Structures are given as C-alpha cells and as structure tokens.
C-alpha cells in the first residue's frame, strides 16, 4: 500500500521552476533516500509532503489524503507525518522530557502517565534517558538531534521525513544520529524518506535511492542497482563518483 504519491507535481517560486514533473510513489514501510547536489529540489520536495510548501500543479496524496484539495485537514496530515529538520527546533525553555511530551499532550490529548512513559521509553531508545531533566542548551548538537527524532516518534506517526538531519553536526556526532535512524528503519514499520549525503547510511538501510538534479528526478533505483550496479543517468553516475562515503 502506498503512503506517499506524487503525480505530475510542479512547484514554482515566482518564475523559478523548483520541481519539474515529479512522479514518485513511496510504499508503507519503505525507507527511501533522496540524494543529489545542493539546490536540486530535495528539501522542497520533502517539505511539500507535510504542507510546509504548496504545489502549483499535479496531485500529492499522503496517507490517502489529497494535499491539493483545499478541504484536506493539514493538521490531520501532520499527526501522521513527522519531520526532523537540519536544525533541531527544540523549545529552549523546556526540559528534554517536556519537549517530547508537549505535542502528544496538546494534539493527541494523551493521558499524562502514559505520555511520560512513552517519552521515557523513547529517550531510552535514543540513548539519552539520563538527560531527561536537562535543557536543550546543555546537550550537544548530536544529542539534540536524537531528541528531535524522539519527539517526532512520540506522535506515533506513520511516516517520518528527515531533511539532512546530520548536515549541521560535527563529524564525531553524526554516527550516533545515523545509528538511531538505522534502528528505526530496521525495527519498525515506519515509512521513512531521508534527504542526506550519507551514502553509507543509504547503502546499508535504504530500500530505494532517488537521485534529483535541477528539480527533477533523474534516477529511482534499488540501492543494489544504484551502488553496486551503475545508475543509468550520467548525472547520477558523476555525482556518485564524487560523493564522500562515511
């Protein structure tokens, strides 16, 4: 069953054509990695999925709901589609535990005892249960990003979007975040779409690799074909030859 479907999607910023004729289907439970040079439209594409960016033409269906339909409840979409950004966007004046508990309390009206247990379980899952009472500024960037992932998981979404989640981190912090993402991909039925330059992660965890350039999807292959065979698109082959593998 498909979780996300793009059909002939076009996106403009004024005269700038940001997304060209996007056709992409992501099935429930799939992990898809989206790669390509800077400015290729990857972040724009992923931000359309939970309505942070609108589309001008085509059809975008998320969890059975048509985002082009003005009657679609975007709050309902966002309950089921979590997002982890480059920067962590944690509430600076709230503890780590409160950061994770806040949205389920306000949006899902989850009972407080249950909410706290789920939050602590998630903190344990990301290896940071001992940091629960601290404020975000007391944690490293890598720790804050793991908290941001736990916060998204607390809503029990059906899909999780990652927009270059390690690009703002120091190199020694990247592996801890990637390991959490690998665990989610392996141990849950979560649908994941990940914008990243981390080819090691893509090679190990992805079901498919989608390559974009100039606002277009130029390659959509299994990870085996993309990495161990050879992409059919010349631009994708050039990109792959230059990328740094972590």
CATH superfamily: P-loop containing nucleotide triphosphate hydrolases
The CATH architecture name reads: 3-Layer(aba) Sandwich
CATH class: Alpha Beta
CA distance, first residue to last residue? 33 Å
Beta-strand fraction estimate: 25-35%
Mean pLDDT across residues = 93
Largest sheet: 6 strands, mixed
Count of discrete domains: 1
Which class do the helix and strand fractions yield? alpha/beta
Radius of gyration: 18 Å
Q: Total number of helical segments?
A: 9
Short key terms for the protein model shown above:
four-stranded antiparallel beta sheet; globular; alpha/beta; 10 strands; 246 residues; six-stranded mixed beta sheet
Protein described:
The protein is α/β, with parallel strands linked by helices. Helices cover 38% and strands 26% of the residues. The chain has a single domain, classed as Rossmann fold (3-Layer(aba) Sandwich), CATH 3.40.50.300. The protein contains 9 helices and 10 strands. A hairpin with a 2-residue loop joins strand 9 and strand 10 (216-222). The model has no long low-confidence stretch (mean pLDDT 93). One of its GO terms (cellular component) is plasma membrane. Residues 4-239 form the ABC transporter domain.
Summarize the structure.
With 246 residues, this protein is of the alpha/beta class.
Topology, please?
Elements: E1 2-13, E2 16-27, E3 31-35, H1 42-48, E4 57-62, E5 65-66, H2 74-80, E6 81-84, H3 96-108, H4 112-125, H5 141-153, E7 159-163, H6 171-187, E8 191-195, H7 199-205, E9 208-213, E10 216-222, H8 223-228, H9 234-242
Parallel strand pairs: 3-8, 3-9, 6-7, 7-8
Antiparallel strand pairs: 1-2, 1-4, 4-5, 9-10
């Amino acid at each position: 069953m498909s979780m996300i479907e793009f059909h002939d999607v076009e996106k403009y910023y004024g005269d700038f054509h940001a997304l060209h004729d996007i056709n992409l289907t992501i099935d429930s439970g799939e992990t898809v990695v989206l790669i390509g040079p800077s400015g290729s439209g990857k972040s724009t594409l992923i931000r359309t999925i939970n309505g942070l960016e609108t589309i001008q033409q085509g059809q975008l269906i998320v969890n059975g709901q048509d985002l082009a339909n003005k009657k679609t409840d975007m709050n309902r979409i966002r309950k089921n589609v979590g997002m982890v950004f480059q920067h962590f966007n944690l509430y600076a004046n709230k503890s780590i535990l409160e950061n994770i508990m806040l949205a389920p309390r306000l949006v899902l009206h989850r009972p407080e005892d249950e909410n706290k247990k789920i939050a602590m379980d998630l903190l344990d899952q990301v290896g940071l249960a001992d940091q629960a009472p601290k404020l975000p500024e007391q944690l490293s960037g890598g720790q804050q990003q793991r908290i941001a992932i736990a916060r998204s998981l607390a809503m029990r979404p059906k899909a999780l979007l990652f927009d270059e989640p390690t690009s703002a981190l120091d190199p020694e912090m990247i592996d801890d975040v990637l390991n959490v993402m690998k665990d989610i991909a392996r141990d849950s039925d979560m649908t994941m779409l990940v914008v990243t330059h981390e080819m090691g992660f893509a090679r190990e965890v992805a079901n498919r690799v989608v390559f974009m350039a100039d606002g277009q999807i130029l390659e959509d292959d299994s990870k085996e074909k993309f990495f161990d065979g050879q992409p059919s698109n010349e631009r994708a082959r050039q990109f792959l030859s230059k990328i740094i593998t972590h």
